[in-house]
Amino acid sequence: MTPGSTGAPAAVVVGAGTVGVRCARELLGSGPDGRPSVGALTVVTRRTDRRGTLAAAFGSEASVAVDSGGGLADLVRGADVVVVTRAAGEQLDVARAALDGGAHVVTTSDDPDEVRGLLDLRERARASDRSVVVGAAMAPGLSCLLVRHAAALLDEVDEVHVARAGAGGPACARQRRRALRGPAVEWRDGEWVERPGFSGRELVWFPDPTGGSDCYRAGLADPLLVADAMPHLRRVSARLAASRVDRLTVALPMLIGPPVEGGPGAIRVEVRGSRRGERHDVVYGAFDRPSVAAGATAAVVAVAAGRGSLPPGAYGLARLDAPRGFLQELARRGVRAATFEGSREFGVLDTGSSEDANA
């Protein structure tokens, strides 16, 4: 299923932090056919003091509503798709309310416990013929699309390893701290194995200018979503780039004020398997501000969901059969992936022409 169906859906973005605002901006842009991505857009914030700022920023292009508690069902009523960009750990109840209201749902959480809860909505979503996309951000999200795209190049796939660097904003930075404290889960030979966070240091090469970074096991959601989509895999792991300073401060509270966009980040996915009887590795990466990549990914997926182009159920993006169309649309919006060419160098990933977007 790929973007491109007719009809401009009505969308609601619940959460007006850095990722939410980026997502809303992407939804207000035009699709590849030049037509509006959405027919109507509402941005929901819980902060009354931000309503005026947001209203001034979006003008007549979007409505701004305040969730003062208890009225979320009314705020999402009538939406074709609801995008949830609140902090990880605060998305499950919103997803349930949106699903109960008859909307498709796109979430951005990377909290493992919450991701499990969102995946548990699968039968509920199927019964209502709605899609609940789990973890549509940079990682998970764009990383899952790259995993699926890489897997299509191999005859058999048995291992997937994901790494990421950076954070989108204050909420993402806090979640990154929690992830480093662990525990981490890895998929090994059909079973989940728990490992301590901040263990298993490994030097990982990301696209420039990030380059090489020490990465560690952490409480990340990518293994859950990849293994859910590809249960035949022998190993699935995820690591997070961290420094010595992180090791010293990871247990301390993070005191950050108003929403501030984080700096550049990067992801890398390594898919291992065989092709024509020989072992092969396919390595893809991406470099961007995490909030930019996350907002764009959530928006592109939301447009497809709102148009009814995604299958019913609850799943991550690694489950989609045709990721190429999404990668093409992300590239059109400025979020470009890269392919590893050896000697620590990445080149531009060629996702093909629009004519073979479903291949």
**Succession of helices and strands:** EHEHEHEHEHHEHEHEEEEHEHEEHEHEE
Count of extended strands: 17
Question: What proportion of the residues is helical, as a percent range?
Answer: 25-40%
The helix/strand class is alpha/beta
Overall pLDDT: 91
- Percentage beta strand: 25-35%
Q: What is the oligomer described by this structure?
A: single chain
Work out the helix count: 12
Radius of gyration: 19 Å
Largest sheet, strands/sense/barrel? 10 strands, mixed
Stretches where pLDDT falls below 50 for ≥5 residues? 1-6, 353-359
Shape: globular
Distance between the termini: 11 Å
Characterize the structure shown:
By secondary structure, the protein is an alpha/beta fold. It has helices spanning 18-27, 51-58, 72-76, 92-100, 112-119, 122-127, 142-151, 170-181, 222-229, 244-249, 290-306, 324-332, and strands spanning 10-14, 40-45, 63-66, 81-84, 104-107, 131-133, 156-165, 184-188, 191-195, 202-205, 212-217, 235-241, 265-275, 278-288, 313-315, 337-342, 345-348. Helix 1 (18-27) packs across helix 11 (290-306).
Features:
359 residues; alpha/beta; ten-stranded mixed β-sheet; seven-stranded parallel β-sheet; disordered C terminus
Summarize the structure.
With 359 residues, the chain is α/β, with parallel strands linked by helices.
Blueprint (SSEs and pairs):
Blueprint: E1 10-14, H1 18-27, E2 40-45, H2 51-58, E3 63-66, H3 72-76, E4 81-84, H4 92-100, E5 104-107, H5 112-119, H6 122-127, E6 131-133, H7 142-151, E7 156-165, H8 170-181, E8 184-188, E9 191-195, E10 202-205, E11 212-217, H9 222-229, E12 235-241, H10 244-249, E13 265-275, E14 278-288, H11 290-306, E15 313-315, H12 324-332, E16 337-342, E17 345-348
Parallel strand pairs: 1-2, 1-4, 2-3, 4-5, 5-6, 6-15, 7-12
Antiparallel strand pairs: 7-13, 8-9, 8-12, 10-11, 11-12, 13-14, 14-16, 16-17
